[in-house]
From TrEMBL, chain A:
Gene Ontology molecular functions: copper ion binding; cytochrome-c oxidase activity; oxidoreductase activity
Topology of the protein relative to the lipid bilayer: Multi-pass membrane protein
Physiological role: Subunits I and II form the functional core of the enzyme complex. Electrons originating in cytochrome c are transferred via heme a and Cu(A) to the binuclear center formed by heme a3 and Cu(B).
Residue span, Cytochrome oxidase subunit II transmembrane region profile domain: 20-118
Family: Belongs to the cytochrome c oxidase subunit 2 family.
Gene3D superfamilies: 1.10.287.90, Cupredoxins - blue copper proteins
Annotated compartments: Cell membrane; Membrane
Source organism (scientific name): Prochlorococcus marinus str. MIT 9116
Protein name, UniProt field: Cytochrome c oxidase subunit 2
PROSITE patterns assigned: COX2 (PS00078), COX2_CUA (PS50857), COX2_TM (PS50999)
Keyword terms: Copper, Electron transport, Membrane, Metal-binding, Oxidoreductase, Respiratory chain, Translocase, Transmembrane, Transmembrane helix, Transport
From TrEMBL, chain B:
EC number(s) from the headed UniProt entry: 7.1.1.9
MF term (GO), any: cytochrome-c oxidase activity
Reaction equation(s) it catalyzes: 4 Fe(II)-[cytochrome c] + O2 + 8 H(+)(in) = 4 Fe(III)-[cytochrome c] + 2 H2O + 4 H(+)(out)
Leader sequence residues: none
Entry's family note: Belongs to the heme-copper respiratory oxidase family.
UniProt source species: Prochlorococcus marinus str. MIT 9116
Principal location: membrane
Higher taxonomy: Bacteria, Bacillati, Cyanobacteriota, Cyanophyceae, Synechococcales
Cytochrome oxidase subunit I profile domain location: 14-528
Protein name, as recorded: Cytochrome c oxidase subunit 1
């Protein structure tokens, strides 16, 4: 009996060790390019490790049972008439409940750090947001922060393109340019069907809905060019509905902004 | 609680055609109707599978080059609709439910045999109508979710035929659900208590409650959507002041429970198969019953987790996260109980057992990604990507379809009196298991790294992984060949199985195989311990 328990403990430790090793060493996610991304990846790592432990554990239990308890040729009759075990049932009700509850609380914390639980408010000077019902989105920092530092952009989506309106420069661009390390606040609305704004490197996504403006705030942290992908089926060319977000140093961004500002319209 | 032997019904039975012709008739025999459901469902599975192959061929290269883009959207819409409404729901509920439930409750037929036949005969015309809509003006192309305004703006005839077809299938599903509830509650043989019923009865009771509570909501929603399309009303049309998010709430109020409508019966079937082939009682009967009912209750209050990136306020997101994640608890209990059922048994490694164990492994994987997807911050990144596609195929294919195959291997001798060939069966399992995992496991990575779902073209960096996935799909297509050969050969020249080849104790095996028209020659036996293995070894050989 003692031997059996030692083997069991050894196997469980091995499953934990393998899961932790995989969780920490195998990266399944794209580059991290916004404040949200490292927070997201932290949650992903935890869920990945817990998931691996459960999956490897269950698979081992099934495969082991098939080998160990397989019916040998010379065997007749039934297995043991074991109909249940109340304490086991209680254990595997309570432990998953606790795990699920802890994951829920932890992801609430992650969501809060991403700004998801904050009251949504689009800090836009040109809009009287009090009359508008803003439905959803992620708001990264608190509203009390100096809103004039936010870069406000209006996004309109249509079959099959995104247009980015820079109200301060009074111009529209097909490419989203933003300065690095600055909070961007986007108000999005669709002109026809539902679209979605997704930047995988930023780990953010928000549907763009006709008739209901949505808000999405983010802060890019890494200079580079990233894809903007439409993630909601929007028609035949849905797969081709992409744009680019170009995160650049503030000086480069200002050059680009001033160049476009002069020409007034740049499609 | 009496056994209903309606004399009129008996007379009608004698007027029914005999032999294979009865499968093409308006038969009132629950066993005939069960087989009708199964074969009809399998034919649609082949159509849906062909469409899936077309999708995987298109995605083997990053450009949209195999078919026109609008046809691609029609194909993915038809694939989803056919697989859900014409294969999984009818087979896992209608086919096995009709065949097994009257045996399990000790009745000679379902409570309402005519309603039962109507429910089945709604399926072939609506399925054919759906497929035929492709030849009218193109099939529906707004996805199986048919979100407005896309579904309002795409070609109307396809979308309207889609709505009519889903309404008929929903009606069929509701008729079936009412019938199952009535049969399980009212037609139990005298002396048979609820807590002595085989687990599949409980699963079907829970499923039927979900069907009856949620399908009418889908029907209402689709009727409103059809008004928007043909009568220019503005329920969901934003141009006329409609609200597109309301549609999503109504749609998912049915369509999330629909996942449990597809999965709970599979939970019931696997609970029948595992004890027989491991020669052990089902572990934890009572907790299994409670966990089914727990899933039913929780399943009704989790729908908005499909809408974390739509217009939903933060408090709603939080509530639906917690509710969804807690479904893992009753589901987990069931899985631990099945493993405990295997533990210490005398397990026969056969096709039915292998498919059931494949189900456990695949479903645990899909369940884990499901708990992750329930977390709002996690979901926001992967929503509407291939991660979600992979997740739900692990649930409905790796889970339910594996159990459908397992059940076919388990109950084939009951229906035909012949055994299926084990070597071909194991070959079928091996190719399916490898093909399935090769097809869908890589899709998790695709979703995490930026490939949205429902696209005909994608970033070339994803080509290699997509080709692995397509290779898996090819294996899945190939795996049907040994299965079909096995079925055709075994029906003709299969080894005779005898009445009870597995020495099973559940009531359907306590009559001849195939069973007589009214199930038992004499009185239905009273089976108080359907899982009494190890206690009363059946002497039958």
């Amino acid at each position: 009996m003692l031997n059996k328990n030692i083997y069991l403990i050894l196997i469980i430790s091995l499953v934990f060790a393998i899961s932790f090793w995989i969780g920490f060493n195998i990266n399944l996610l794209p580059a991290e390019a916004s404040i949200n991304a490292p927070i997201y990846d932290e949650l992903f790592k935890i869920l990945f490790i817990i998931g691996l432990i459960i999956f490897i554990g269950m698979t081992l239990a099934v495969v082991y049972s098939l080998f160990k308890f397989r019916k040998r040729n010379d065997q007749i009759g039934d297995g043991i008439a074991l109909e249940g075990n109340l304490s086991l049932e209680i254990v595997w009700t309570i432990i998953p409940s606790i795990i699920v509850l802890l994951i829920g609380l932890y992801s609430y914390n992650i969501y809060d750090r991403m700004g998801g639980m904050k009251e949504l408010n689009h800090n836009h000077e040109m809009m009287s947001s009090s009359t508008e019902k803003i439905w959803a989105g992620i708001s990264q920092t608190s509203d009390n922060e100096i809103s004039k530092n936010n870069l406000s952009i209006e996004v309109s989506a249509m079959q099959f393109a995104f247009l980015f309106n820079y109200p301060k420069g009074k111009f529209i661009s097909g490419e989203l340019h933003v300065p690095v390390d600055q909070k961007v606040s986007m108000k999005m609305e669709s002109k026809d069907v539902i679209h979605a704004f997704w930047v995988p490197e930023f780990r953010i996504k928000q549907d763009i809905i006709p008739g209901q403006p949505t808000v999405l705030n983010f802060t890019p942290t890494k200079v580079g060019k990233y894809p903007i992908i439409c993630a909601e089926l929007c028609g035949p060319y849905h797969g081709g509905m992409r744009a680019s977000i170009i995160v650049e140093e503030e000086s480069d961004y200002n050059d680009w902004f001033n160049n476009n500002k002069k020409t007034e319209v740049n499609l | 609680m009496t056994i209903s032997i309606d004399p009129q019904q008996t007379n009608n039975e004698s007027l029914q055609p005999k032999g294979w012709l009865r499968y093409f008739s308006f038969s009132l025999d629950h066993k005939v109707i069960g087989i009708q459901y199964l074969v009809c469902g399998f034919l649609f599975y082949l159509i849906g599978g062909t469409l899936a192959s077309a999708i995987r061929i298109e995605l083997a290269s990053p450009m949209s080059d195999f078919m026109p883009r609008d046809v691609y959207n029609q194909v993915l819409t038809l694939h989803g609709t056919i697989m859900i409404f014409l294969w999984i729901v009818p087979v896992v509920n209608g086919a096995f439910g009709n065949y097994l439930i009257p045996f399990y409750v000790g009745a000679r037929d379902m409570a309402f045999p005519r309603l039962n036949a109507v429910a089945f005969w709604l399926i072939p015309p609506s399925g054919l109508m759906l497929v035929a809509s492709y030849f009218v003006e193109g099939a529906a192309q707004a996805g199986w979710t048919a979100y407005p305004p896309l579904s309002i703006t795409t070609p109307q005839s396809g979308q309207i035929i889609w709505i009519l077809s889903v309404l008929l299938l929903g009606g069929s599903s509701i008729f079936g659900g009412i019938n199952f509830i009535a049969t399980i509650i009212k037609l139990r043989r005298p002396g048979l208590k609820l807590m002595q019923l085989p687990m599949y009865c409980w699963a079907m009771l829970g499923t039927s409650l979900l069907v009856v509570l949620s399908t009418p909501v889908l029907a209402g929603t689709l009727i409103l959507l059809s008004f928007d399309i043909i009568a220019n009303t503005g329920f969901f049309n934003p141009i006329l002041g409609g609200n597109v998010v309301v549609y999503q709430h109504l749609f998912w109020f049915y369509s999330h429970p629909a996942v449990y409508i597809m999965v709970l019966p599979a939970f019931g079937l696997v609970s029948e198969i595992l004890p027989v082939h491991s020669r052990k009682p089902l572990f934890g009967y009572t907790t299994m019953v409670f966990s089914i009912m727990g899933i039913v209750v929780l399943g009704l209050v989790v729908w908005a987790h499909h809408m974390f990136t739509s217009g939903t306020p933060p408090w709603m997101r939080l509530f639906f996260t917690i509710a969804t994640a807690f479904i893992a608890v009753p589901t987990g209990i069931k899985f631990f109980n099945w493993v405990a059922t295997l533990w210490g048994g005398k397990i026969s490694i056969n096709s039915a057992m292998l498919f059931s164990c494949g189900f456990i492994i695949n479903f645990v994987f899909g369940g884990i990604t499901g708990v992750a997807l329930a977390q709002v911050p996690f979901d926001i990144h992967v929503h509407d990507t291939y991660f979600v596609v992979a997740h739900f195929h692990y649930i409905v294919y790796g889970g339910t379809v594996f159990i459908i195959f397992s059940s076919i291997y388990h109950w084939f001798p009951k229906v035909t009196g012949k055994m299926l060939n084990e070597k071909l069966g194991i070959l079928h399992f091996v190719i399916t298991f490898i093909g399935f995992n090769l097809c869908f496991a890589p899709q998790h990575w695709l979703g995490l790294n930026g490939m949205p779902r429902r696209v005909a073209e994608y970033d070339p960096q994803f080509q290699f992984v997509n080709q692995i996935s397509s290779l898996g799909a090819l294996l899945m297509a190939i795996s049907t060949i040994p299965f079909l050969i096995n079925i055709f050969l075994s029906v003709r020249i299969g080894k005779d199985s005898g009445d009870n080849p597995w020495n099973a104790l559940t009531p359907e095996w306590l009559t001849s195989s195939p069973p007589p028209v009214e199930n038992w020659e004499g009185e239905a036996p009273l089976v108080e311990e359907p899982y009494g293995y190890g206690k009363q070894f059946s002497e039958q050989k």
